[in-house]
Hints:
It is built from 5 helices and 17 strands. Strands 14-15-16-13-9-12-11-10-17 form a 9-stranded mixed sheet. The chain has an 8-stranded mixed sheet with strand order 2-3-4-1-5-8-7-6, with helices on one face. Strand 2 (30-35) and strand 3 form a beta hairpin. By secondary structure, the chain is α/β, with parallel strands linked by helices. The protein folds into 2 domains: 3-129, 2,3-Dihydroxybiphenyl 1,2-Dioxygenase, domain 1 (Roll); 149-309, 2,3-Dihydroxybiphenyl 1,2-Dioxygenase, domain 1. The chain has helices at 16-27, 72-84, 160-169, 223-235, 289-293; strands spanning 3-13, 30-35, 38-42, 52-56, 61-69, 89-92, 103-107, 113-117, 149-157, 174-180, 186-192, 200-204, 212-219, 240-246, 253-258, 264-269, 282-284. Bound molecules: fe (ii) ion. Fe (ii) ion binds at residues 8, 64, 66, 97, 100, 115. Fe (ii) ion binds next to strand 5.
Amino acid sequence: MSIAHIGHAELLVPDLDASVSYFRDLVGLRVTETVGDRVFLRAWQDWDHHTLVLTDSPEPGLRHMGWRVKTKADAEQIHAAITERGVESTWTAGSDEVGHGDALRFLTPGGLPFELYWEVQKHVPPPEDASKLPSHPSRVSIQGAAVRRFDHVTFIVDDVVAEQEFLTNALGIRHNYFIHGPDGGRWGSWLSCNNVSHETALTRNAHQDGGKLHHIAYYVDSVDEVARAATLLIDHGYELEWGPGKHGTSGATFLYFREPGGNRVEIWTGGLLIFDPDWEAIDWSKHVGHLGNSLWGTPMPETFRDGTSLPKTVVTA
Ligand SMILES: [Fe+2]
């Protein structure tokens, strides 16, 4: 069984127009299509129809996170593996979502709304946005932070160890590194299906009130671009939540902020790459765990471990 890569996230937002403007004009995403109360967006070098869906909703939160598998047979194998572990799932024949085909949807044991799909609609740019460069699915963005590509989705869960073992053993997502808190317990785990440092991560919910979206992340090419994004956001009336700073674990430079609906977003760059076929997860012990979170000492806000400040996960059919 094999998951190919992280695909997209669907965020629920209470003011659709405000969130669309924010992601389009400041983050620099492109709107691919609007269908009813859902707006589909992508970064300039995202190859598929969309990597972000913004859906109008009374409350903010995460509706689903999509992973692409290579074939339907991979989804069927994962279906057997999760069923064996008592996880219920639903096959969606003919997706309700434009841009990809049939899907398998389920809630992980930690309460995360996952979706697997295997057929995608590639992005076809309108003539005015088509690049003459074959490696560019659309022209380089001239909007806002002009992020290059969708990067990862991080969650907050009650039991990091149990959820990581489910993702690794049932879904086949490699465990890349983990971090201990001062109490010696597992505070975070980072995982990927390919050579990036992580496509998803799990951090411990200090308030133990269930699994929630922690943040979605888009990638830029340089630290300079992260710094420019920070200035751009502040000058347009928004606050930064954490950063710019550097994670010791991945070595990536980060910047966190909230979109108008309250969902957390990260812009980041760098990060280790993994090519080793027999990789063993790196253990960041409690003695150096603080360097893993914040190498330069930029204080981590309490909101990062406090799940009460995050929108709830909203599960719909
Ligand atoms: Fe989806």
